[in-house]
Amino acid sequence: MAAWIVAFALGATVTTLGAAQAKLNLFGDLPIVEAIKDGSLDATKTAIIDGASVHSRAADGTPIIVLAVGERNLEIVKLLIENGARPDDRSKKDETSPLTLAAANGDLEIVTYLLDHKADIDLPGALRETALIKATRAHHNDVVKLLLERGTNVDETDSSGATALEIAQRAGWKDTEALFKTKKAAAK
To answer: Across the strands, what pairs with 57?
Structure first.
């Protein structure tokens, strides 16, 4: 009964959620959300087997694929993508995508996996920041290099009008600037 009340309060009904997803916690999160937040691959698998959607969202609107990236759990990211999760599913509150979050975190393996599974390399998030801008801002040169190699648009700008190269220049990161110069030389 309590799960139904929470589900109703969140604008969903138990019949809409399905039996596997009707067991919401006190925060209105589904079991699959809890499993991902706990970093449990087995519990995430069980939730999917029990009928949880890989397109589920946390109570705050964050897609579970973004949660898995935030937990830096490549195995759960793989499980979700292999079961049909969209690599470009963005958070409703701040438009964070799995790729922009992985780039900001410097998670090279997750960035590589998402790109290999058709994530939009130039999809902007909050403040129009692309994965390249996020990786540059956080000084994750291995991710910057990968994104450049994969053909990201170096001319994309954030909400202030700055490109990733300009961000690196303002920060005084010569090593990051060199990556952009190498990219431009290769393009000629």
So the answer is: 63
Q: CATH number of the domain at 2-187, please?
A: 1.25.40.20
More reliable by pLDDT, 7 or 149: 149
Cβ contact 163:148 at 8 Å = no
Produce one character per residue of 2-38: b if its CB has 16 or more CB atoms within 10 Å, e if not: ebeebbeeeebebeebeebbbbbeeebbbbbbbbbee
What is the C-alpha separation between 176 and 139, in angstroms, rounded?
7
Contacts from 7-11 at CB under 8 Å and sequence distance 24+?
Answer: 10/59
- Tell me the pTM: 0.84
pLDDT the model gives residue 23: 64
Domain boundaries, the chain: 2-187
- Segment 130-145, tens digit of pLDDT: 999 999 999 999 999 9
